[in-house]
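Thread title: Can someone regenerate the structure for this chain?

I was given the following input by a collaborator and told the matching structure tokens would be attached. They weren't. Posting the sequence so someone can regenerate them.
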Amino acid sequence: MGKFALADEALTQIWVCRRCKARNRAGVKKCRKCGSIYLRVKRKESRVKK
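Best answer:
Regenerated them for you:
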């Protein structure tokens, strides 16, 4: 990823809500913004348009 390992590690500990796209701390059971239980881990690599 990037050249700052500490920053990369902090970014991978973020979960994203599938409903409202809010960022949440890792390990939470539901979204802090909308209360949804559908969360995913933040992608570790950037996606490139083809």
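DSSP finds one helix and three strands in the chain.
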